[in-house]
Design a protein that fits this description.
Strands 1, 2, 3, 4, 5, 6, 7, 8 and 9 form a 9-stranded antiparallel beta sheet that branches. By secondary structure, the chain is of the alpha+beta class. The radius of gyration is 17 Å and the shape is globular. Helices cover 34% and strands 28% of the residues. It is built from 6 helices and 9 strands. The two termini are 22 Å apart. A hairpin with a 2-residue loop joins β1 and β2.
Length: 190
């Protein structure tokens, strides 16, 4: 992926987080598979129950990348949100938007810590929450990933063995039926 595409994905995720926090919730984990530098789309994890279901739901994000034959993926998640959902300890900066860029040869973890600031403009307006992005640590090649994200990265590049004439299309339909939110680019629309 070129620098411009990466910068656009980072900017988009930061904007999504700002909007989500203002609305009272951080966005769910999302995978963005790429094929030959072209973004396939974005797939957000389905609603999950805490524990094993959340672990499985996040790891299964890999299905869309595997079905598309992705040669690169980006996953984004919030440190506290994934730790709580998966009943895991918090590792790394928190609160923090994490983005991992991965290929079959390895991954680089990018972390964008932030603080939340609540303000009240007066009694007529609702309290607003703003994000203040703080100094990001240097990107970490092969940085530690939470177990479900690590699984999603590993399985994203495992060829899918699906006996169907359109494995990508059927995977999209099955994921949507399971509750995943799938937004494909025009290039990869079923």
């Amino acid at each position: 992926m070129d620098t411009r595409t990466w910068d656009t994905l980072v900017s988009s995720m930061k904007g999504t987080y700002v909007k989500g926090v203002r609305e009272g919730a951080v966005p769910r984990p999302v995978i963005m598979p790429l094929v030959r530098g072209e973004l396939v789309g974005l797939v957000w994890v389905r609603p999950t129950e805490p524990g094993a279901d959340a672990l499985t739901g996040i790891a299964a994000l890999s299905n869309i990348a595997a079905a598309a034959g992705a040669d690169e993926v980006v996953l984004a998640w919030e440190t506290q949100e994934v730790a709580a959902a998966c009943e895991l300890p918090v590792v790394g900066p928190s609160p923090c938007l994490n983005m991992v860029r991965a290929t079959p040869d390895g991954h680089v973890l990018h972390q964008f810590p932030y603080t939340e600031e609540s303000s009240s403009a007066g009694t007529a307006e609702k309290d607003a929450t703003a994000l203040d992005w703080v100094q990001a640590p240097a990107p970490r090649p092969d940085g530690e990933l939470p177990p479900p994200v690590k699984a999603a990265v590993e399985y994203a590049f495992t060829p899918m063995e699906l006996d169907h004439p359109n494995p990508f299309g059927v995977t999209v339909v099955l994921m949507e039926e399971d509750g995943y939110t799938v937004r494909l680019t025009d290039v990869f629309d079923r």
